[in-house]
Amino acid sequence: MKKILVPLILASLSVLPSLAAASSSSYAQLLEQISAPPPAAPAPAPKAVPGQRADGRYWVTIAAPDKRSRTRLLEEGFDIVVVSKDRRTVSGIADKALLDRLSSRAVSVLSSRPLADYSSGVSRDFPQADAVYHNYQETTDLLRQLAAKNPDIASVFSIGKTVQGRDIWCLRVNTSVKGNGPSDKPGAFFMGNIHAREHLADEVPLLFASWLMDHRNDPEIKNYISTLDIFIIPMANPDGVEYDIKDGQYQYFRKNMEKNSDGSFGVDLNRNFDSWWCREGASHYPPSDTYCGPKAFSEPESRDIRDFFLAHKNIKTHISYHSYASEILYPYGGSDEDVADPRDKAALVKIADQMAKLTGYTAEKSSALYIATGDSCDWAYATDKVLAFTVELEGDGFYPGPAVIKGTVDRNVKAAVYLLSMTANPYQ
Ligand code: 0X9
Ligand code: ZN
User: Fold this and answer.
1) Which domains does the chain have, with CATH numbers?
2) In testing the pocket of ligand 1, which one of 194, 195, 267, 319 has its CB within 8 Å of the most ligand atoms?
3) Is residue 258 flagged as an active site residue?
4) What is the Rg, in whole angstroms, of the alpha carbon atoms belonging to the chain?
5) Whole-angstrom Cα distance, residue 46 to residue 39?
6) Tens of pLDDT along 130-163?
7) Ligand 1, closest atom to CA 371?
8) What does residue 364 show for φ and ψ, rounded to 5 degrees?
9) What would the mean pLDDT of 256-264 be, rounded to a whole number?
């Protein structure tokens, strides 16, 4: 019955935008899209699916390259609305239970978003001029596409939820372990966008992930991929990001979306870690941009990142991307003290110097920028001796426009690859 209905549904919904059109996950094509001039007219708001209300269901895109797999999906109860032109993907509607079922099986879910986003007409996207930046959904979709195209080496998993219930997604590149399981291989962890308005700090690790997949067969990269455990979390504070771009206008928002005791919003996640918590460079005043929260690790996002580190003690090196100061910073930032271990100090300085050469940025001890306590990199170093760097990307503000993306990513890919080269033996 359902099989007969599908063509009718497709015909009746032929006016829908081609939501399932395959978007590219290749690094070169992503950069081409970024360099292309923005379209003259604003993109139309996503249209409501006729007759559908915002009721907890999802608009889902799934890889289904043959008829048999599409049929199986229908039998599972997946409501196929669109088959992509190349017939490789289908999009349609699923409730939460079905989406969970599909995600936990071998089915390749490429993207999913609440139907509410389609029917409410609420914009959650960048201003038109910056449309090439990736919002939360686009970031999630790209990570999933990369994993779907490289299933032998990559997987995507959530490290936990945000205040508003979004998943914080991690792409893992590991030839033997998928998802969140343990690995003995030395780990390198790249994280971005813990501060909401620093959108370039999502683009760099996200496009680095795409670059890695494109270059997976280059002998040097192949070697890192087969010997290391690489984690990439491009958007550590998705609630803040989505708020910052709400209604297509920038909100200059830095923090997470915690509702504070005084009614204000947001804790500075980079002041909420348990490293000299809420001493210098942090504020107890909730409306402040550097509000440290009511206690260390009061926030789900900082707890998720903490627990992620604690679950992966094999992580040796780390970058947290921020913007914008063109700096490579090494611990400590919460104190003028040097790290006590001279071997670690030498490695931190050496690696920071080399990453500075590769990017053209300035290397310095984090506290030289200013002392700020509760910082994620200080905590990672103090807890597990992770060689942790804050990379302050370039630009002339928080919203430097699309033109800076390519150069910034190119330069930082070089530094990230260098960090990979140091991960197995940082003290070389
Ligand atoms: O203040 C911060 O959290 C970072 N700078 S930003 O402008 N992106 O907000 C710098 C963190 C460096 N760490 C310390 N100085 N502790
Ligand atoms: Zn920042």
Assistant:
1) 2-39+125-423 (3.40.630.10), 57-118 (3.30.70.980)
2) 195
3) no
4) 22
5) 16
6) 999 999 999 999 999 999 999 999 999 999 999 9
7) 15
8) -160, 165
9) 97
Q: CA nearest 278: which of 258, 292, 297?
A: 292
Q: What is the pLDDT of residues 202-255, one digit of tens each?
A: 999 999 999 999 999 999 999 999 999 999 999 999 999 999 999 888 999 999
Residue pair 81/47 in contact (Cβ under 8 Å)? The answer is no
How many C-beta atoms surround the C-beta of residue 84 within 10 A?
18
The verdict on the CB of residue 375 being under 6 Å from ligand 1 is: yes
The strand order across the sheet containing 229-233 reads 154-161, 167-173, 229-233, 187-192, 315-323, 387-393, 327-330, 362-365
Looking at the CA of 336, which ligand is closest?
1
Question: CB-based contacts of 1: which residues, under 8 Å, 6+ apart?
Answer: none
Cis amide prior to 243 (ω within 30 degrees): no
Tokens read off for 14:
């032929």
- Residues whose beta carbons lie less than 5 angstroms from ion ligand 2: 195, 198, 322
Instruction: With H, G, I as helix, E, B as strand and everything else as coil, classify residue 390.
Output: strand
Q: For 47-76, what is each residue's pLDDT tens digit? A: 333 333 345 778 889 998 887 788 778 777
